[in-house]
Predict the 3D structure of the following.
Amino acid sequence: MTTSPFAPKNLPTLTSLRGVSLGAVRAGIRHANRLDMMMMRFDAGAHVAGVYTRSLTAAAPILWCRSACDDGEIRALLVNSGNANAYTGTQGMEDVRTLTAQVASEIGCDASQVMICSTGVIGEFLPVPSMMSAIPQLHHHIHADGWDEAARAIMTTDTFPKMATRTCMIAGTKVTIHGIAKGSGMIAPDMATMLGFIVTDASLPAAIMKPLLARYTVKTFNSITVDSDTSTNDAVLMVATGGSRSPAPHSAGDPILDELKEALYDLMKELALLIVKDGEGARKFITYRITGAEDDESARIIGLAIANSPLVKTALAASDPNWGRIIAAVGKAGRWINPDQITLYIGDELITHGGAVVATYNEATAKAHMLQSELLIRVDVGVGEGCADVWGCDLTERYIEINANYRS
Amino acid sequence: MTTSPFAPKNLPTLTSLRGVSLGAVRAGIRHANRLDMMMMRFDAGAHVAGVYTRSLTAAAPILWCRSACDDGEIRALLVNSGNANAYTGTQGMEDVRTLTAQVASEIGCDASQVMICSTGVIGEFLPVPSMMSAIPQLHHHIHADGWDEAARAIMTTDTFPKMATRTCMIAGTKVTIHGIAKGSGMIAPDMATMLGFIVTDASLPAAIMKPLLARYTVKTFNSITVDSDTSTNDAVLMVATGGSRSPAPHSAGDPILDELKEALYDLMKELALLIVKDGEGARKFITYRITGAEDDESARIIGLAIANSPLVKTALAASDPNWGRIIAAVGKAGRWINPDQITLYIGDELITHGGAVVATYNEATAKAHMLQSELLIRVDVGVGEGCADVWGCDLTERYIEINANYRS
């Protein structure tokens, strides 16, 4: 598969993080000879928080994760690609129990301390025997520096592994945050994302991580779109190993967390943008900056309506400044706008003001901006102070080619 | 442009209808030498009702139609293709006033009795001078048998004209209903449709037509989807000329209308399906039959979620029975379902029951059905008695090609 033109030239190096070892193996889940099963093992004392898909046909591993690790303590995470274990009924849940029990037995913990995520084809049963036989090998293999292989093992149609890292201080103690993610299709609003795994050596209880993760997910993973489809398996997990022995915050509002919050948001945004930049068939990366909405949520919804419009996306693919399609998408979003006060810019070119195209509009300038591979489209909808950035890509023939042939 | 493989082999002949004359001319609105402006002239006593787009950036002609013909009396309808007169601000409304006044002056009626519709590129101003000079010529040209040219003049990316006709009895008097429509992209839920014009020689007041039109629009034009985009210009108008001198009904519930209701619904459904069958780039036509929903509206929403899913549509393009994508679309629709009781059929092949794939499922049989050009996909969501049929098409490279090059 051709690597996305937006793939980072250099992948970041995720160094070892106190309290976690990880790695990946070839379990032959869908294809022979590719890394398709990943494990993270955490030292005792690690805590976890998660946000999950809102799909009403959520996969078995999602149902497990929602109820496992109830006290927030986690000892291991098992992830496979190639098979989503979604819409697999009681057999799917039984398979989750079998696999988590096996991991728990290897590690010596309770199965409820093992999280599991799956991604891939929906509706097929997991090849449990081959996964079971690979687990001991995987457990034997994990090591402190397995981030790159872990990021690769969770890929499906991704054309490059997605990794990000940040460091910051918590009351004088340096902490590190690593994150890996996967996803390049079935990316849409109203879900957690595809898969995102964030690990920090900070000392944080689940009750503090959960609201931070939820808040930043809205502005990062839930503000991107590739194809408007919501997956059955989306999850973002954050684990704090406590390996840095950083001071414990009193609450999510404790000022000692200020730097960590900024670093976490930044890392989540980087991962989210990498997912858009690996959008199936994408040749253009677009930032939609919505202002003047009733509130931030309205701005996000309007931005996603534009970013998801097939007509906008095909115009983008053709570098055609067919701006009327953007206006039409604003109109269909269903949020409060003032149609006579929409201010629309493509790049720095002002297109509309006062309810119609402005006399100064120069299509050639807009076209020149659209020929670039990274675009900025700004829309002010003229009613309030709400604003949001939303990120999307274009829709090309290649998207169809990829998705028509995914299973074959 | 290649004609859709689903184009009817023979177009119906719409014979003359008492009380209306119509025709089309080449006004050079976007392209030279194509029919792009159509007029219908009605005898005094004709009544009109309409349903319109819910877009918040509705076009100037939509704003006009919503307020014109307040008493339900209509004398003329002017329609152009090539330019939507949408997001054109005060200039756009001024142009509507100029054009309707000119038509009114030709015919000798009040401008408020002239309806106007436009379809085409958004954001550009109408070429009013060339339209003005074409109006007298068009008025001179209209005749009783202009249905075919009228249907052609309203086409944009349509590859064939869409026409349908029915006859029925109202209390012993034979009446006829003719309909023409256009639309092949920007077709989506939550709107009236693209453009649909229905004319009958029955005697019906606006107050009776309006609720019938609204009710059947939900089950026809609002149950189809090509690309999930909602246009700024969608409208369905129904005009009753009264030329048949059929008895006047007392109310919309009057039993003398039973046959007419059936005929009207049937005609609207035929036109709606012709729009899907001309879906941009479509090679497959799919009927989604949803049952077991909480209510009919839930069933329609679930059906549209499936029909609009890019992942389902690309799988359809590849004739790949990747049924998990259908389940995922059911899950993202946000309506009440029982995930453990979804019964899914592709053609006659039962795929899921009791929360997972059934042991008897034979992918080859499902694949054989998917290789056909007209498919039936049935989904029972296991919670109630609500049901709906929804119609959609596949998503092919050709859709992108058409929409990337529309303006050029």
